[in-house]
Amino acid sequence: MWLDEALLKGSRRAVLLKAVALIAGIALLDWRIVGAIPLGFLYLLPMLMVGSVLAPWQIAIIAAACTVLAELFDDLGWGVRLGIPRDVLFFAAFFGVGIFMREVTRKRTADIRHLEEMQREGDARREAEEQLRIFVESSPAAIVMADASGTILMANQAAHRMLAAKGSLPGKTIYSYLPSLRHVPTPDNSEQLYRTVMQAHGRRESNEAFLADICFSTYQTKAGSRLAAMVLDSSEELSTHEVASLRQLMTASRIAVGAVSHEIRNICGAIGVVHQNLARNPLLVGSPDFETLGNLIAALERIASISLQRTTSEASEVDLPALLGELRIVIAPLLEEAEIAVEWHADADLPEVWADRAGLMQVFLNLVTNSIRALALRDDRILAITARMQADRVLIEFEDNGCGVSQPELLFQPFQSGAYSSGLGLYLSRAMLRTFGGEIRYQAQAEGAHFVISLTPVQG
């Protein structure tokens, strides 16, 4: 301890100066003291000092110098038979002590660096754990960790709120809240791990059911297998989606029923004219079958004349670039599967538009689906979607290089012959657009089909 504090502290130059001074002092003492007491062993002390700061070849030079000084100032006679072995032992002792001290110093320096690295790693680990703890606790998603038996080991505040837990969740079983996790296999080794997402029904502690989106993974620890789950309550999203779907269905149904009623009225009108003409025939007067036919026509006319209130969508401000981005995500797999190249062109400063978001998306999807069918027989399949401003309207154009349209004048009529399925797609699309002030038209061209949707921009 004293050696370390007094002789080895300081810079490399300071230690060397101390060692040289000590060597000079020992040599002077050995020269001044006359007697049979050799003082050469004292050179071991400066050799310890130089061993902590010098390289091996430098230590060898200092050891040789100390050997010369020890031999020069002691009172022992020197001869070949006794002097050389003695000097060899002196040198070996001095050099060995220096090398030993050098290795001790290197080991000590390495240990100090290792301890410092461990300290830094420990500090970094504690900081990361603290950041992770803050992240988990502040996360709006419920985060739960459980062991192999399903016992909850950790749960954040969002999990307590979502599951309406009375008291603390740790110690309770996760299967009582999320029964579907019971079917997740427990990993037996590191190769049997699961990382996936599923949608399942959950149950709060109050016995209230909810729909949950669960992102979970399994992993191994020294204490056994663990399951970590991030849970999102999607009940409100489901409710909103179902209500919007119902509203969309009712809107489309009214439009379809209106189209059917219109066609029935036309048919009944034609039959009614024929019936009136036949009524002039005296042979049919008083005929029960003829009167029944007249009653049937009147009944059909009454059914067809029921006035369905023209539906008006709840138009709102729609972020058109965002909606087009969602459309791009939705149709990408369909176009890739059909091997159709899509070209997107959109102005950078498109404004918001007045529309029903779900209805407008359905119109877009209907046009894309029509283009996919029209391009099925072509080798070079291209669909171009363009969004731009023109005067005081926002135009969204769908253009393909498919087989085109043979009778453009019949495009927007219901129940047209030769149409795919019921022939109501474009009729319903136009009726839907008109409910919030939009319009769709077909633009004739030499090849393919070109539809243009016109929407009203939101005035800033």
Task: Provide a compact summary of the structure.
Helix content is 49%, strand content 18%. The chain is α+β, with helices and mostly antiparallel strands. It has four domains: 2-115, no CATH class; 142-233, Beta-Lactamase (2-Layer Sandwich); 237-304, no CATH class; 316-457, 2-Layer Sandwich (Heat Shock Protein 90), CATH 3.30.565.
Characterization of the model:
Helix 4 runs antiparallel to helix 5 and helix 7 packs antiparallel against helix 8. The strands form two sheets. Strands 6, 7, 8, 9, 10, 11 and 12 form a seven-stranded mixed beta sheet that branches. The chain has four domains: 114 residues, no CATH class; 92 residues, 2-Layer Sandwich (Beta-Lactamase); 68 residues, no CATH class; 142 residues, 2-Layer Sandwich (Heat Shock Protein 90). The two termini are 81 Å apart. It is of the alpha+beta class.
**Strand tally, please?**
12
Question: What is the second-level CATH architecture of the largest domain?
Answer: 2-Layer Sandwich
Unreliable runs, pLDDT <50, ≥5 residues? 307-311
**Can you give the helix content as a percent range?**
40-55%
Kindly give the count of domains.
Answer: 4
Following the backbone from N to C, one meets helices and strands in this order, namely HHHHHEEHEEEHHEHEEHEEHEE
CATH topology name of the largest domain: Heat Shock Protein 90
Any idea of the CATH class of the largest domain? Alpha Beta
Roughly what fraction of the amino acids lie in strands? Answer: 15-25%
For the biggest sheet, the summary is: 7 strands, mixed
Q: In angstroms, what is the radius of gyration?
A: 47 Å
Distance between the termini: 81 Å
Class from helix and strand fractions: alpha+beta
Taken from the alpha-carbon principal axes, the silhouette is elongated
Put simply, the count of helices is 11
- Tell me, rounded to a whole number, the average pLDDT: 80
Assigned CATH superfamily of the largest domain: Histidine kinase-like ATPase, C-terminal domain
Instruction: Give the oligomeric state.
Output: single chain
InterPro entries: BphY/WalK/GraS-like, HATPase_C_sf, HATPase_dom, His_kinase_dom, PAS, PAS-like_dom_sf, Sig_transdc_His_kin-like_C
Pfam families: HATPase_c, PAS_8
Keywords: ATP-binding, Kinase, Membrane, Nucleotide-binding, Transferase, Transmembrane, Transmembrane helix, Two-component regulatory system
Subcellular location: Membrane
